[in-house]
Design a protein that fits this description.
536 residues, mainly alpha, two-stranded antiparallel sheet, 19 helices, globular
């Protein structure tokens, strides 16, 4: 149990260094080429090119931590190794301060450090990652102290303290608790019609490929002619739909677009052409096992279908899954039940089970059979090459994909407000009390708890989706300031809870603090995605 705790601590520390490294890279991308400050941040190792700057420092620390984990066989060496990692972090404090001072105090990023609310998102993320790394190290040190000292054991009562805190924060529920976003009354007459109108427009956009203007019937007719094919067949008219988009749009208008749409279209064509070839293959080995033949064919078919389906996922395919599917199809060695090893993945396994090689060819028909397998293999290899180019240079840059991610972030933020309401209700801070209890913002003005939470619900479920859907990238630019303000107010509320005597005592319970911290993190995510979309 102790070893698992230590290994988890090292894994967590490694992940914190990786997150810090990613944040520094995003910060470097905001600078123009040739800027001297890019050298301070540096870059990662790419191929034979070594990394540099603070990014390389983070990656080196993470690599050293991963190398130390297998050597840990007892508690004290683990503590020593963890302490050395902490010392390395302490030594980088001067570099951390230098980095943030340079970026905070530079005019290209707006006001000086005494106005942090207007700083770029990337600088704020870097600061948060530094602080999270520091807090994580401090927490793990406390855990090690508790299990290695007599005083710590007495204080912790051998782990009971932490268990009691978790139980208090997440009690066993004895009744269903509705955590759906609270409904907010609206004074807009067309609010209900807006949702219906958005659904109709989304359907038209999916069918026609674009949304024609209401006052332009000519463009509507052109869109109809391009999306539907009308044919006279045996005295009657048949109309067929020619899809112009590859996936439906979300409420914000996002979907599979750009580079992903191109790759997905190629994948569908390759799949449609490959399945008949795969089904038509027959073994050239006279002693071929029928069960193995059916199994090999089914595995390749299912793997290929899964690749194509994954490439069409809204919000972007899962990189690890697509890489793994191509690896099992083309690269990974396959060992059957008899211990026979086949190279070049399941395609190589199918080739060996069927005996599809030139040595087995005796007739022109058999050579055509081998040729069909070669065509199938070329389809999959070509698709993998296209995926590698998309993954390395275009992944996450399509506007449709970004809209999908932003839509999800807004939804989860609205849902988190429902969790906050449920937590407050469980500690007897009800709706009436939330309309009276207040905290002060950075200007000293009072903000009611209910005002803040209802504002977040309205913004994430109504205002922001409407602006983005109707205004596109410019609408996202209008969303960003409000998202930043709401995140700042939520952070201010969390900071005021332990010290503001006028706030209800129940708010200080960990059961309330935890969902508030999650809400703030989701608002931060909305802010980061909005910043990413609005930037050219």
């Amino acid at each position: 149990m102790i070893y698992d705790m230590i290994q988890g601590a090292f894994d967590g520390l490694s992940n914190r260094w990786l997150e810090l490294s990613d944040a520094l890279i995003q910060l470097a991308k905001t600078l123009p080429d040739g800027d001297s400050r890019k050298a301070l941040l540096g870059k990662r190792n790419t191929g034979n090119t070594p990394g540099s700057g603070l990014v390389k420092r983070c990656d080196d620390e993470r690599e050293s931590i991963l190398n130390e984990i297998p050597e840990i066989i007892s508690l004290r060496p683990a503590i020593k190794a963890f302490t050395s990692a902490i010392e390395r972090f302490v030594l980088s404090e001067s570099e951390r301060r230098l980095t943030l001072e340079i970026f905070e105090g530079n005019s290209m990023f707006g006001p000086p450090p005494n106005s942090p609310e207007n700083e770029p998102v990337e600088v704020s993320v870097c600061r948060d990652q530094f602080e999270r790394l520091r807090e994580y190290i401090s927490g793990r040190l406390q855990e090690f102290e508790e299990i290695t000292s007599i005083q710590g054991e007495r204080f912790n009562v051998k782990g009971i303290r932490g268990s009691v805190e978790k139980l208090a924060a997440y009690p066993i529920l004895t009744a269903d608790m509705n955590t759906a976003p609270a409904s907010v009354p609206t004074t807009q007459a067309g609010a209900g019609g807006l949702s219906l109108q958005r659904s109709i427009e989304g359907a038209m956009r999916e069918v026609l490929g674009r949304l024609p203007k209401a006052n332009d019937p000519r463009s509507f007719v052109v869109a109809l002619n391009q999306s539907f094919q009308v044919k006279q067949i045996e005295g009657h008219v048949e109309v067929s739909w020619a899809p112009r988009s590859y996936a439906g749009q979300t409420d914000l208008g996002g979907g599979v677009t750009g580079g992903q749409a191109s790759l997905y279209a190629r994948a569908k064509v390759a799949l449609d052409n490959s399945i008949p070839l795969l089904d038509g293959l027959y073994p050239l080995l006279p002693e071929a096992d029928e069960d193995l033949v059916r199994a090999a064919r089914a595995i390749v078919r299912n793997k290929f279908i899964e690749v194509v389906d994954e490439l069409g996922v809204e919000g972007g395919p899962r990189i690890a899954r697509v890489d793994d599917l191509f690896k099992t199809l083309l690269d990974e060695d396959v060992v059957d039940e008899e211990g026979t090893k086949s190279v070049n993945g399941y395609l190589g396994y199918l080739k060996e089970v069927f005996g599809l090689s030139s040595a087995q060819v005796n007739t022109l028909e058999e050579e055509t059979n081998v040729t069909n397998f070669t065509v199938l293999e070329d389809y999959i290899i070509s698709l993998r090459d296209g995926w590698n180019r998309f993954r390395d240079s275009l992944f996450g840059k399509d506007l449709g994909t970004r809209f999908v991610l932003l839509s999800r972030a807004l939804s989860v933020a609205a849902e988190s407000v429902g969790e906050v309401y449920a937590a407050m209700d469980s500690v007897f801070v009800g709706p009436a009390e939330r309309q009276v209890a207040a905290f002060r913002d950075e200007d000293g003005k009072p903000v009611l708890i209910e005002e803040l939470l209802s504002w977040i619900v309205t913004f994430t479920s109504e205002e922001a989706p409407r602006l983005i859907y109707e205004g596109g990238r410019r609408g996202v630019a209008a969303v960003f300031p409000t998202a930043k303000l709401l995140e700042s107010l939520t952070r201010r509320f969390i900071q005021a809870i332990p010290h503001e005597p006028s706030l209800p005592e129940g708010l200080r319970h960990p059961r309330v603090i935890n969902p508030l911290l999650e809400l703030r993190a989701y608002l931060e995510r909305v802010q980061q995605l909005a910043q990413d979309v609005r930037r050219q």
